[in-house]
């Protein structure tokens, strides 16, 4: 097992603001585990189809407008990643094998994994089918060691599902999630109390949850390349340059996260957004982008087994003003074709746009019959979708 702990207990740049934002003692005593399955969907396909083992595999549609939902580690070595257009993925990796999504199978395996989690603690906060936070401060079996529990969970997952998981162990959610990604795949990393600030400050800024390409570019323009660079900026400076996001960055650079693990929340909506590297204005480009977002969001709707009656289109213009348009229907949206048709109608009603946009998003809400699920953190979703 790799241990990510280090010797220093604090980092540079701590001042009066740090005292005001510091975590209370009880938060420092939490024992948090973040478990993340390794290339979950693709790994399930490789498990169930032995001929795919060792080969680059993508889950998702292979058609011209298809999108990669997940990629095996063999495919990732070629640059293939989730949310990438299938045509781009095939260009990067000509030998890529596409598998159709089987969410009924993925959910069944996810249920097995969650049962393992709940064998150890009632405080389980799923983020998606393949990852969750666990608070094992008071574990059900009386083991006491979060590291030992994480090892046991990974062993149990391998034995029952023939899949591998990576785990991060620390004293808060932010650090545990960073740690779970440190030694992937099939690894574990422990960040011990007092070591979070040094660990975070050694990371490149792109590793911070919530910092996508746009935010990373802005940080670089401001001379921020690493967590240590970020920690050297005080709170007023960060707020002046990043607004309310500045407080998050201030805390993150010091390894501070006060959020508790929440066992369950009722999902109110399912959606996704994409921020463009270049502003878009042409009707053809906008229609093509909408189709890709429909694919991505419908994958999430299927994962959540969600059905709703309201579709919302969000447009953020290049002057940062936001325009939203929503349409509610009498019957729940059961099919992707219906969801896509409503989304297209909403976009067509806005064309031609008065000025270019930098972001487009779609959301399905007014949900019915949805099981209680933990809400994916805003920062984590932003990192995945490059929202910032």
Automatic annotation (TrEMBL):
Molecular function as annotated in GO: DNA-directed DNA polymerase activity
Root EC class: transferase
Record site: Substrate discrimination: 41
Cofactor(s) named in the record: Mg(2+)
Matching Pfam families: IMS, IMS_C, IMS_HHH
InterPro entries (UniProt xref): DNA/RNA_pol_sf (IPR043502), DNA_pol_Y-fam_lit_finger_sf (IPR036775), DNA_pol_Y-fam_little_finger (IPR017961), DNA_polymerase-Y (IPR050116), DNApol_IV (IPR022880), PolY_HhH_motif (IPR024728), Rev_trsase/Diguanyl_cyclase (IPR043128), UmuC (IPR001126)
PROSITE patterns given in the database record: UMUC
Alphabetical list of HAMAP family matching this protein: DNApol_IV
Record's function text: Poorly processive, error-prone DNA polymerase involved in untargeted mutagenesis. Copies undamaged DNA at stalled replication forks, which arise in vivo from mismatched or misaligned primer ends. These misaligned primers can be extended by PolIV. Exhibits no 3'-5' exonuclease (proofreading) activity. May be involved in translesional synthesis, in conjunction with the beta clamp from PolIII.
Protein name: DNA polymerase IV
Organism the protein comes from: Qipengyuania spongiae
């Amino acid at each position: 097992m790799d241990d990510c702990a280090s010797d220093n207990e604090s980092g540079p740049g701590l001042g009066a603001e740090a005292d005001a934002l510091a975590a209370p003692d009880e938060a420092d005593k939490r024992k948090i585990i973040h478990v993340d399955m390794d290339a979950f969907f693709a790994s399930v396909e490789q498990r169930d189809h032995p001929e795919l083992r060792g080969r680059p595999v993508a889950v998702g549609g292979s058609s011209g407008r298809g999108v990669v939902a997940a990629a095996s580690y063999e495919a990732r070595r070629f640059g293939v990643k989730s949310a990438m257009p299938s045509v781009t993925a095939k260009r990067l990796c000509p030998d890529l094998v596409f598998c159709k999504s089987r969410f009924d199978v993925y959910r069944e395996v996810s249920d097995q994994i969650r049962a393992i989690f709940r064998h150890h603690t009632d405080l389980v906060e799923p983020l998606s089918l393949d990852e969750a936070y666990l608070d094992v401060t008071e574990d059900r079996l009386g083991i006491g060691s979060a590291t030992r529990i994480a090892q046991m969970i990974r062993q149990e997952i391998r034995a029952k599902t023939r899949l591998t998981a990576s785990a991060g162990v620390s004293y808060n959610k932010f650090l545990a999630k960073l740690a779970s990604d440190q030694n992937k795949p099939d690894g574990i990393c422990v960040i011990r109390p007092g070591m979070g600030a040094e660990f975070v400050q050694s990371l490149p800024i792109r590793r911070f949850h919530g910092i996508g390409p746009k935010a990373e570019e802005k940080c670089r323009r401001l001379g921020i390349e690493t967590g240590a660079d970020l920690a050297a900026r005080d709170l007023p400076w960060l707020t002046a340059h990043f607004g309310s996001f500045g407080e998050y960055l201030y805390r993150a650079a010091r390894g501070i996260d006060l959020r508790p693990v929440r066992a369950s929340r009722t999902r109110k909506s399912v959606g996704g957004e994409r921020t463009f590297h270049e502003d878009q204005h042409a009707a053809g480009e906008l229609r093509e982008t909408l189709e890709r977002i429909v694919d991505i969001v419908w994958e999430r709707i299927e994962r959540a087994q969600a059905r709703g009656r309201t579709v919302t289109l969000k447009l953020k213009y290049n002057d940062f003003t936001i325009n939203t348009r929503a349409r509610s229907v009498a019957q729940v949206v059961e099919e992707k074709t219906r969801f896509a048709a409503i989304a297209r109608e909403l976009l067509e009603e806005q064309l031609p746009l008065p000025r270019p946009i930098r972001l487009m998003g779609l959301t399905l809400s007014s949900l019915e019959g949805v099981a209680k699920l933990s809400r994916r953190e805003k920062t984590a979703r932003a990192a995945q979708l490059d929202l910032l």
